[in-house]
Automatic annotation (TrEMBL):
A GO MF label: antiporter activity
Source organism (scientific name): Pontibacterium sinense
Organismal lineage: Bacteria, Pseudomonadati, Pseudomonadota, Gammaproteobacteria, Oceanospirillales
InterPro entries per record: EmrE-like (IPR037185), Small_drug/metabolite_transptr (IPR000390), Small_multidrug_res (IPR045324)
Record's protein name: QacE family quaternary ammonium compound efflux SMR transporter
UniProt KW keywords: Cell membrane, Membrane, Transmembrane, Transmembrane helix, Transport
Gene Ontology CC annotations of this record: plasma membrane
Transmembrane residue ranges: 33-51, 58-79, 85-104
Gene Ontology biological process: glycine betaine transport; xenobiotic detoxification by transmembrane export across the plasma membrane
Record family assignment: Belongs to the drug/metabolite transporter (DMT) superfamily. Small multidrug resistance (SMR) (TC 2.A.7.1) family.
Signal peptide location: none
Highest taxon of source: Bacteria
Annotated membrane topology: Multi-pass membrane protein
Length: 110
């Protein structure tokens, strides 16, 4: 259970860091840049902690898949960046993939 908590922290930290990346303006703004660096540091540390029991491929699929969804939602809310229908369908397929892994894969149980 603790490893799934670490995975949640990894996802949240990566989403915060990636969202701040746009505000950093190519690392020319101090506070957003520090948020990016610290967010990715926490994200990779927390992701590495999940790998004690969750297989690398499964952890990475969930981490990156949910990260894409959350970053896309935040980009819409914060930066008013809209997605077209093919992008929404593609992201929906990513979510479906994460659901299939979690519900049906015996690999994710190790």
């Amino acid at each position: 259970m603790k490893n799934w908590l670490f995975l949640g922290v990894a996802i949240a930290s990566e989403v915060i860091a990636t969202t701040a990346l746009k505000s950093s303006d190519g690392f020319s703004k101090l506070w957003p840049s520090l948020l990016v660096i610290s967010g990715y540091g926490v994200a990779f540390y927390a992701l590495s902690m999940t790998l004690h029991t969750i297989p690398l491929g499964v952890a990475y699929a969930i981490w990156s898949g949910l990260g894409i969804v959350f970053v896309s939602v935040l980009a819409l809310l914060i930066y008013d960046q809209k997605l077209d229908l093919p992008a929404v369908i593609g992201i929906g397929l990513i979510v479906l993939g994460v659901i299939v892994i979690n519900l049906f894969s015996k690999t994710s149980l190790h």
